[in-house]
Amino acid sequence: MRRAIFPGSFDPLTLGHHDIIMRGITLFDELIIAIGKNAEKKYMFTLEERVTFIEKAFVNEPKIKVLTYEGLTVDFCKKVNAGFILRGLRNPADFEFEKAIAHTNRKLSEIETVFLLTSSGKSYISSSIVRDVIRNGGDYTGLVPDSVNVSK
């Protein structure tokens, strides 16, 4: 089985993430969306909210699982028997950053990193931009899947 993980904080899930995930499931038998937990990071959305956003967005995709993890991504890959890490690239800066991580992960393990370019119409979207729009009362709905709802 070709199992991959797509790691991230997903604070929140964006249409850019959604794009990579939907294209990624065509490459793998199973794709685990792996939400990393970092106690030092301040999140806008709770872990439970982020899990719910993702589960609702992919409720009809049997090849997708949503799990949370702490620690090194390569250790999580070994734990879930994933041979691949899927990453999305929006721009050259993403590539340089992700390349260093991929080389380090490859040094630590046999895990391969697969990069997909985000579709051009979504390459400007980032979770930090979405959070800024939400904080300032802007219309975030064109930047995230319908499952991301901040009204409480």
Automatic annotation (TrEMBL):
Its EC number is 2.7.7.3. Its cofactor is Mg(2+). ATP binds at residues 9-10, 17, 88-90, 98, 122-128. Pathway: Cofactor biosynthesis; coenzyme A biosynthesis; CoA from (R)-pantothenate: step 4/5. Its main location: cytoplasm. One of its GO terms (biological process) is coenzyme A biosynthetic process. Keywords: ATP-binding, Coenzyme A biosynthesis, Cytoplasm, Magnesium, Nucleotide-binding, Nucleotidyltransferase, Transferase. It holds the Pfam family CTP_transf_like. The keyword Membrane does not apply. One of its GO terms (molecular function) is ATP binding. Substrate binds at residues 9, 41, 73, 87. The keyword Ion transport does not apply. It is found in: Cytoplasm. InterPro entries: Cyt_trans-like, PPAT, Rossmann-like_a/b/a_fold. It catalyses: (R)-4'-phosphopantetheine + ATP + H(+) = 3'-dephospho-CoA + diphosphate. Homohexamer. Reversibly transfers an adenylyl group from ATP to 4'-phosphopantetheine, yielding dephospho-CoA (dPCoA) and pyrophosphate. Belongs to the bacterial CoaD family. This is Phosphopantetheine adenylyltransferase. It comes from Maribacter aurantiacus.
